[in-house]
């Protein structure tokens, strides 16, 4: 649904629109109260080296459960949060949770792990954003390289220079930068080259079609060598099978993420499954 349609699709005289509009309104109202009612939880999905399967990082993925509505996935509620102007507030909550979690794992003696956090366009274009990150790093006493900032190509459309300034400021404090869903959006490659990007995340639609649609394998190879030429490492997301992982590794992909390794899971499960203790 486009922004232009917005809430005007709520139409009492069209039964299907009514139902859709009711759900939309219900979600909007519930979403505004979700932080206060403690309805969000951050899940963690491992990222491993393609070369040897060693888990080196995790992506933080937000989950929401509301008593009346039930579970709703981020693919549905994040766009709504953006539309009603509360995505920055939610994003700040996620960042805080993640920093707190990194610190908690550190206190338990686990070796440091990097956590990637999805950052909405509204957040990454905000001039205050690097300061927010810096304050959180100080508050939780963790180092910048334990955070990876994931943004999409769409973040560059409206104010590329603001994003550029922020990315350099984030690099300055040690954070890593990843471009999420790469290959699906607006890509000005010469522009990307001027940015301090560590990782290109190949969109999972390319991985999914790897062995069905012929063109995808060539496309993946092209993205892998391009990312190499740009001096960046690539992360493949949505890797579900060993043949996919093998093909990616052979093509030079550095890091893989997907159900092959694990689904996103609560922090405690992630810790049990993927964080080695000192004794081990
Ligand atoms: P994303 O950042 O591209 O995250 C990857 C999505 O792929 C996640 O969906 C993950 O659960 C799913 N996934 C991972 N491995 C596999 C696999 O092997 N197969 C399949 N079929 N799917 C896999 P999820 O958690 O539903 O999140 C959807 C999107 O919502 C994310 O896409 C991201 O754009 C957004 N999102 C999630 N959490 C946040 C957040 O805290 N802030 C913001 N701004 N956006 C978020
Ligand atoms: Mg992501
Ligand atoms: Mg993605
Ligand atoms: Mg995405």
UniProtKB/TrEMBL annotation:
Signal peptide: none
Domain EAL per the UniProt entry, residue ranges: 24-278
Protein name in the entry: Predicted signal transduction protein
Entire-sequence positions represented here: 558 to 837 of 837
């Amino acid at each position: 649904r486009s922004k232009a349609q917005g809430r005007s699709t709520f139409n009492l005289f069209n039964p299907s629109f009514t139902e859709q509009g009711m759900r939309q309104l219900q979600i909007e109202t519930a979403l505004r109260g979700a932080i206060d009612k403690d309805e969000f939880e951050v899940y963690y999905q491992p990222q491993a080296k393609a070369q040897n399967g060693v888990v080196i990082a995790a992506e933080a993925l937000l989950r929401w459960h509301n008593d009346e509505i039930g579970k709703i996935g981020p693919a549905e509620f994040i766009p709504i949060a953006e539309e009603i102007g509360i995505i920055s507030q939610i994003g700040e909550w996620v960042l805080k949770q993640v920093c707190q979690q990194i610190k908690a794992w550190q206190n338990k003696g686990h070796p440091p792990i990097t956590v990637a956090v999805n950052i909405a366009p509204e957040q990454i274009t905000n001039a205050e954003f690097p300061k927010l990150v810096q304050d959180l790093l100080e508050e939780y006493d963790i180092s910048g390289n334990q955070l990876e900032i994931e943004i999409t190509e769409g973040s560059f459309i409206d104010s590329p220079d603001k994003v550029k300034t922020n990315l350099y400021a984030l690099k300055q404090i040690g954070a890593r930068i990843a471009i999420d869903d790469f290959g699906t959006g607006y890509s000005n490659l010469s522009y990307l080259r001027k940015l301090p990007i560590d990782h290109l995340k190949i969109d999972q639609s390319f991985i999914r079609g790897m062995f069905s649609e012929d063109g995808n394998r060539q496309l993946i190879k092209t993205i892998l060598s391009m990312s190499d030429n740009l001096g960046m490492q690539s992360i493949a997301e949505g890797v579900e099978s060993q043949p996919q992982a093998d093909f990616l590794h052979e093509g030079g992909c550095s890091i893989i993420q997907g159900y092959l390794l694990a689904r996103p899971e609560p922090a405690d499960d992630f810790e049990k499954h993927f964080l080695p203790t000192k004794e081990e």
